[in-house]
UniProtKB/TrEMBL annotation, chains A, B:
Domain HTH tetR-type as annotated: residue spans: 14-74
Annotation: DNA-binding region: 37-56
Superkingdom assignment: Bacteria
Name used for this protein in its record: TetR family transcriptional regulator
GO biological processes: negative regulation of DNA-templated transcription; response to antibiotic
GO molecular function terms listed in the Swiss-Prot or TrEMBL record: DNA-binding transcription factor activity; transcription cis-regulatory region binding
Length: 224, 224
DNA sequence: ACCTGAACACCGTTCAAGT
DNA sequence: ACCTGAACACCGTTCAAGT
């Protein structure tokens, strides 16, 4: 009577690099960085841990591939209609969102890595910096500053959500931090106390874009 | 004849949280993040791994303590003579240097951690932002942007030097990356190719400060 | 109160053996 | 060519036992 239940739920596709990376991203998203295990991955793919090594050299490459899979779609080509400023905001927001949904990516990103997925981002920002009319000698600095800022925010956001049990309410967490800021010693932390309220109500994305605009303002000021 | 050689080289100080954290920092600096092991640490301290747990709850706290030990001295109180801009540059440079000598700190830093060593940095920046004459409603944004930028650069630098065998010549590594940039497909990466030369010769610290000045310029522009 | 070090429950990675 | 899964050399952490 239970004999027929053994049939697999769905036909087993062959193992492939693509499936492995996809499963790795899922695992990282749901279980966090510590959740990505060759054993857990193997179980999800209904195979043994050794099989994965046929398609991927090791954990480092797996993480790099997962990072790439998540960043690449975030970098859409610029809308031809957009102003350089708008194009930069769109690009920045793309990475911001990607790192927001996948908090584990942040630490993986390095621009100096030889085939970094950030190269596309840097290129995109650089072109718009050029379109803004920044002279050649100042372009590298301007593009780097924008990149660094974006990665800094994303990294902080990611670190913040990593330090919290996955699925915790973001607003609640922010509120708790704001509370602790409001309770700081006024003698040592007058400024931080003062802005605790702004931390509590602030909109991550709007705050992020305000920072981008601050840098764009500095770039524009340099052109005058 | 060999009997007397067994005397310990130096008198063994008692184990303490301070000694443990100090040894952890040394281990992290010399052997990298993967080098920090309870066994390696125990060996350095001439004890068993279990002994460490009497003074420290676990690896997470150990890393946090090591991070704090490295960041705290980098945040000196502002020179009373300095302009707000200068004070911000000094502060920024302090963290930059700390993260540069200790590349493993970057990923540990989160502002939203309840007792983050970054709180002091944020407070310091915030005060100077206030001194610049930024209106209250814009201070949080300005201070956050500066913080994020600083952490972004530091994180990138750290990630860069982490991806390289410890002790490798920095200039050589930068040169190699610049070479690979210069060889990029001109159709897809015209901007990055163009600035490859600037990456090769650029001065990390000067570039970093130029970015700080860009944000300060944006803040100043907002005041006009 | 503080330290010891064996033991437990994990890891990433390898590899002989299978198909 | 691709997969299996036991085995190896590690981890962080615990804990009975010592001083």
């Amino acid at each position: 009577m239970a004999t027929r239940e053994r049939r697999p739920e769905r036909r087993q596709e062959p193992l492939s690099r693509e499936r492995i990376v996809g499963a790795a991203v899922e695992l990282l998203d749901t279980a966090g960085e510590r959740g990505l295990t060759f054993r857990a991955l193997a179980e999800r793919l209904a195979t043994g841990p050794g099989a994965i090594y046929w398609h991927v050299t090791g954990k480092a490459e797996l993480l790099a591939a997962a990072t790439d899979a998540v960043i690449a779609p975030a970098v859409a080509p610029a809308d031809a209609e957009a102003t350089p400023e708008q194009a930069i905001r769109t690009l920045a927001l793309g990475i911001f969102d990607a790192l927001d949904t996948h908090p584990w990516v942040g630490p993986q990103l390095t621009l100096t890595e030889r085939h970094s997925p950030l190269l596309r981002v840097f290129e995109g920002i650089g072109r718009q910096v050029q379109a803004l009319g920044v002279p050649e000698s100042a372009r590298f600095t301007a593009a780097s500053a924008l990149m660094s800022y974006i990665l800094g925010v994303a990294g902080q956001n990611a670190a913040g959500s990593r330090s919290v049990p996955p699925g915790t309410d973001r607003a609640a967490h922010l509120g708790a931090v704001a509370d602790s800021w409001a309770e700081l010693d006024p003698g040592h932390y007058p400024f931080t106390r003062e802005v605790a309220g702004q931390l509590r109500v602030h909109d991550d994305e709007a705050e992020f874009l305000a920072g981008v605009d601050l840098i764009l303002g500095g770039i524009a000021a340099g052109l005058r």
